[in-house]
Amino acid sequence: MGKIIFYEGRNFQGRHWECGSDCMDTFRHFNCCNSIRVSGGHWVAYEKPNYMGYQYIMGPGEYPDYHCWMGFNNCVRSCQMFPPYRGSYRMRIYNRPDMMGQSMEFMDDCPNVYDRFRFRDIYSCNIMEGYWIFYEHPNYRGRQYFLRPGEYRACGDWGCFNPMVGSFRRMRTM
């Protein structure tokens, strides 16, 4: 079973809280989060309650300060564990909202969207199989967006305000 431990101090110091399931609001458990240990499962931590705000995707390992999980600050206010996935991966991206415009189907990672798709913006997508992570910049940098199977008719549907996606990868949980 999965477990994530949040620490108020850097390098796993100070008050801590262990979590083994989804939590919509972590505020009553800790004030800030400067380090995290993931001892099982894969997790998405969110900057705000109710699974809103910046998203940080983490697999098993140690994150001694918030820069190690690509955090923008020390605020984590909700978290979700996602189940292991061992199937195939497939998605279709579009350069217009509502699954319109030019499209391209992917089954593998893409370190630079513009090089492969010839568009800088992804306005909508259909995740047909697997879990995917969109990154704001090429080479898996910047803000992260976790996508489950389903239709995302506008970039706001995956928590983004700007359709610019620089790279994406499959979230492999093996």
TrEMBL record:
<dbReference type="InterPro" id="IPR001064">
    <property type="entry name" value="Beta/gamma_crystallin"/>
</dbReference>
<keyword id="KW-0273">Eye lens protein</keyword>
<feature type="domain" description="Beta/gamma crystallin 'Greek key'">
    <location>
        <begin position="41"/>
        <end position="83"/>
    </location>
</feature>
<dbReference type="GO" id="GO:0005212">
    <property type="term" value="F:structural constituent of eye lens"/>
</dbReference>
<dbReference type="GO" id="GO:0002088">
    <property type="term" value="P:lens development in camera-type eye"/>
</dbReference>
<dbReference type="GO" id="GO:0007601">
    <property type="term" value="P:visual perception"/>
</dbReference>
<comment type="similarity">
    <text>Belongs to the beta/gamma-crystallin family.</text>
</comment>
<feature type="domain" description="Beta/gamma crystallin 'Greek key'">
    <location>
        <begin position="130"/>
        <end position="172"/>
    </location>
</feature>
<dbReference type="InterPro" id="IPR050252">
    <property type="entry name" value="Beta/Gamma-Crystallin"/>
</dbReference>
<comment type="function">
    <text>Crystallins are the dominant structural components of the vertebrate eye lens.</text>
</comment>
<dbReference type="Pfam" id="PF00030">
    <property type="entry name" value="Crystall"/>
</dbReference>
<protein>
    <recommendedName>
        <fullName>Beta/gamma crystallin 'Greek key' domain-containing protein</fullName>
    </recommendedName>
</protein>
<keyword id="KW-0677">Repeat</keyword>
<feature type="domain" description="Beta/gamma crystallin 'Greek key'">
    <location>
        <begin position="2"/>
        <end position="40"/>
    </location>
</feature>
<dbReference type="InterPro" id="IPR011024">
    <property type="entry name" value="G_crystallin-like"/>
</dbReference>
